[in-house]
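Example 9 (inverse folding). The structure is encoded as follows.
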């Protein structure tokens, strides 16, 4: 009797196992079938590092608006949850699914060679967008579409040089800077930080009095600013150099909580990057002095790039998106309301 019961339980466990395995395969088959249904659509895998900012969401929306089924595309969007490992996993998934193109917005510049080699072996063109990659062989990706972060940083430094000129007697003004960096190792952070580093080398009166990475988020930037105010009295701060708008919002939240005036007519000048609506409104109010644009509307640039490739044309290796800069005098409510992000 005991053996029969044991045999029955063994058969039951075995059948459950077979059922689970079958379900998994079915899941993958459903995925494959869904792509089979799309065999007349061009399938594009889009790997985003995360959704850390309004800017990042604007880039995602821009790409989704460009690659629609009406225009002959199926877009598969993956959010890397701010981890490079997740993005690498997502790219491998795209390769397994046999997408036609991969668009990658890399969270950091390095660590992509292996997975880009896998995409190349699978004969899947990869287009880098937004931030850049640092690879051993630039043939590992087809093209880059994104920002010139060095130029963005230069705009901010030029603004500071014009604002903090020597006086009539040649005396140099004090320029004490709180530097809130973006995601360390991202090309946005590297470009914007390098510009400030160059400014510090060229101006003996410029000094960083506090520094830390806000990881492009409001919450972390607020903590960096609160820590800075522990280290340095606000009367000793002249500039807060925020490497994106979310960080500027975080710094402002910390200043407001501490009751510290900032912006026009005070001793504290805030500089930011991105030019999202919230930052432009603060700039118009004089709270942020300069906003350097970082243009997330890259969907059409990418669409045109892939259209060229679809027609068998060579795509330009490097395309910088158009970007400007704003101070209070450039802004009106109508102008801000008309912007797409
Ligand atoms: C820059 C982009 C940056 C933005 C931030 O191209 O990668 O990442 O400046 C975003 O807002 O988080």
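The amino acid assigned to each position is listed next.
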């Amino acid at each position: 009797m005991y053996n029969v019961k044991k045999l029955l339980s063994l058969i039951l466990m075995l059948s459950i196992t077979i059922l689970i395995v079958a379900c998994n395969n079915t899941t993958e088959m459903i995925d494959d079938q869904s792509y089979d249904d799309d065999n007349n659509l061009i399938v594009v895998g889009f790997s985003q590092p995360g959704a850390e900012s309004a800017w990042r969401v604007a880039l995602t929306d821009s790409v989704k608006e460009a690659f629609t089924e009406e225009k002959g595309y199926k877009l598969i969007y993956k959010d890397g949850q701010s981890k490079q490992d997740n993005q690498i996993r997502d790219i491998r998934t795209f390769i397994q699914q046999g997408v036609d193109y991969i668009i990658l917005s890399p969270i950091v510049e390095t660590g992509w060679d292996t997975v880009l080699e896998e995409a190349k072996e699978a004969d899947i063109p990869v287009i880098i967008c937004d931030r850049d990659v640092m690879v051993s062989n630039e043939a590992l990706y087809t093209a880059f579409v994104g920002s010139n972060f060095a130029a963005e940083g230069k705009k901010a430094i030029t603004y500071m040089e014009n604002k903090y000129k020597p006086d009539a007697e040649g005396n140099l003004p004090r320029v004490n800077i709180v530097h809130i960096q973006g995601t360390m190792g991202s090309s946005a952070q590297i470009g914007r930080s390098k510009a400030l580093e160059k400014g510090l080398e060229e101006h003996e009166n410029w000094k960083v009095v506090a520094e830390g990475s806000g990881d492009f988020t409001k919450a972390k930037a607020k903590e960096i600013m609160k820590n800075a105010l522990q280290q340095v009295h606000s009367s000793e701060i002249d500039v807060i150099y925020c490497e994106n708008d979310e960080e500027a919002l975080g710094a402002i939240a910390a200043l407001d909580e501490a009751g510290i005036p900032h912006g026009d007519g005070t001793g504290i000048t805030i500089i930011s990057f991105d030019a999202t609506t919230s930052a432009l409104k603060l700039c118009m109010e004089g709270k942020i002095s300069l906003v350097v644009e970082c243009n997330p509307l890259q969907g059409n640039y990418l669409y045109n790039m892939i259209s060229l490739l679809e027609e068998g044309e060579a795509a330009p290796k490097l395309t910088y998106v158009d970007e400007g800069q704003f101070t209070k005098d450039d802004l009106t409510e109508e102008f801000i309301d008309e912007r797409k992000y």
